[in-house]
């Protein structure tokens, strides 16, 4: 029995698909899900989200969020999800560099520090996926 995958952001339902495997990036590291997986809820970190359907690998850069797995259904709720094919590696590299400079100008106690740190992590995820997806 295949997995039913749903990826949702605050703005849209990004994808609803049947697939063979899902790979996610949690705050504790990467993990994979296949049919029959034990039910779980995981906190996701910004990183690569991959699903494999019919032998084809689909890559996304995902922001922070949550994943719920139960009864061969995987629901992923994330801040953002960008398909690899839509990402430009050069633009992603420049964005990461700009975000790192902005973060370097802040101190950890600054109210904007955590938001900018999250922006750096999402930019790094987009660059990783942009480079792998091409």
What would you say this structure looks like, in words?
The chain starts with a strand and ends with a helix. The model has no long low-confidence stretch (mean pLDDT 95). It folds into two domains: 82 residues, ATP Synthase, domain 1 (Sandwich), CATH 2.60.15.10; 46 residues. With 134 residues, it is an alpha+beta fold. A five-stranded mixed β-sheet has the order 2-1-9-8-5, with no helix packed on it. Strands 4-3-6-7-10 form a five-stranded antiparallel β-sheet, with helices on one face. The protein is globular and about 50 Å long. β1 and β2 form a beta hairpin. The chain is built from two helices and ten strands; from the N terminus they run ββββββββββαα. The longest helix is centred in the last third of the chain and has 20 residues.
- The outline comes out as globular
Note the beta-strand portion. 35-45%
The SSE string, one letter per element, is EEEEEEEEEEHH
Beta-strand segment tally: 10
CATH hierarchy, class of the largest domain: Mainly Beta
Mean pLDDT: 95
Helices and strands: which structural class? alpha+beta
Radius of gyration: 15 Å
Main sheet: strand order: 2-1-9-8-5
Q: How many helices does DSSP assign?
A: 2
Number of domains: 2
**Largest sheet data:** 5 strands, mixed
Secondary-structure arrangement, i.e. CATH architecture of the largest domain? Sandwich
- What would CATH call the homologous superfamily of the largest domain? F0F1 ATP synthase delta/epsilon subunit, N-terminal
Low-confidence stretches: none
Alpha-carbon distance between the termini? 30 Å
């Amino acid at each position: 029995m295949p997995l039913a995958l749903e990826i949702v952001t605050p703005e849209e339902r990004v994808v609803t698909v049947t697939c063979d495997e899902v790979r996610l990036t949690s705050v504790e590291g990467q993990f994979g899900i296949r049919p029959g997986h034990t039910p779980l809820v995981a906190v996701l970190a910004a990183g690569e989200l991959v699903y494999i359907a019919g032998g084809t690998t689909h890559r996304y850069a995902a922001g922070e969020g949550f994943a719920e797995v139960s009864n061969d259904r995987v629901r992923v709720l994330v801040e953002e999800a960008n398909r690899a094919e839509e990402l430009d590696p050069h633009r992603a590299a420049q964005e990461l560099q700009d975000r790192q400079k902005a973060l370097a100008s802040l101190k950890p106690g600054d109210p904007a520090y955590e938001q900018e740190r999250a922006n750096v992590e999402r930019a790094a995820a987009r660059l990783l996926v942009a480079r792998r997806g091409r």
